[in-house]
Amino acid sequence: MKNKLLIIGASGHGKVVADIALQMNRWDRIFFLDDNESIGLSMGIEVIGTSDDLFAHIDDYDVFVGIGNNITRQKIYLMLEKAGASIPVLIHPNAVIGNQVDIGNGTAVMAGAVINCCSKIGKGCIINTGSTVDHDNYIEDFVHISPGVHLAGTVKVGKGSWIGIGSVINNNLNITSDCNIGAGAVVIKDIPEPGVYVGVPVRRV
Ligand SMILES: CC(=O)SCCNC(=O)CCNC(=O)[C@H](O)C(C)(C)COP(=O)(O)OP(=O)(O)OC[C@H]1O[C@@H](n2cnc3c(N)ncnc32)[C@H](O)[C@@H]1OP(=O)(O)O
């Protein structure tokens, strides 16, 4: 662990990530990188360069990808991992994490999220504000569980899937990789095919 943190992405998601890092009180200094060169400061935190500058900083900083898009976050995360970057886990102090929960590097757990016992969360995930991930879930890498989502017990969510805000997933279900579940959806059966699913119960669109 380094005493400085560099967050890639200074807009919406990156700011929430920075807020968690500040609340964790673990780093002496926090900075952003962002490809929008017009952003000098975000949340009062200095933007010190663009993604082109990333590898110049890798030895001196812990690095976290603060980008909400699953594909972009995965791409940058894998580059960082390959380069040997130190990538922390960020957990808001007001998240609740149960016993025997395993959380991969590069994952952010936002305020009010609850991850119950024996769940495994992959790397580069977002467990967003006020979502609940109940017991024995398996959330693969680069998944986004949006704000207010409820995953019942023993749910599996495949790599890169995005579970939309306020949706509900019944217990003992598998959602495959690269799915996009719409806002407010209810999933009552396995989803074995990648795609976009909306409604109550969900239908593919
Ligand atoms: C902190 C944060 O902000 S985290 C981010 C939180 N945001 C989210 O979770 C966003 C979730 N995204 C959605 O719900 C989106 O609407 C998606 C991804 C499901 C669909 O987006 P698109 O692929 O662009 O689909 P599009 O908008 O063209 O809609 C396709 C059809 O699905 C319907 N539809 C789209 N979303 C929903 C939804 N959530 N519930 C019900 N129907 C929906 C549309 O009305 C449309 O129906 P029609 O063909 O009969 O007219």
From TrEMBL:
SUPFAM superfamilies: Trimeric LpxA-like enzymes. Residues 4-78 form the PglD N-terminal domain. It holds the Pfam family PglD_N. Transmembrane segments: none annotated. InterPro entries: AcTrfase_PglD-like, PglD_N, Trans_hexapeptide_repeat, Trimer_LpxA-like_sf. NCBIfam families: NeuD_NnaD (TIGR03570). PANTHER family: ACETYLTRANSFERASE, UDP-N-ACETYLBACILLOSAMINE N-ACETYLTRANSFERASE. This is Acetyltransferase. It comes from Ornithinibacillus salinisoli. The lineage of its organism: Bacteria, Bacillati, Bacillota, Bacilli, Bacillales.
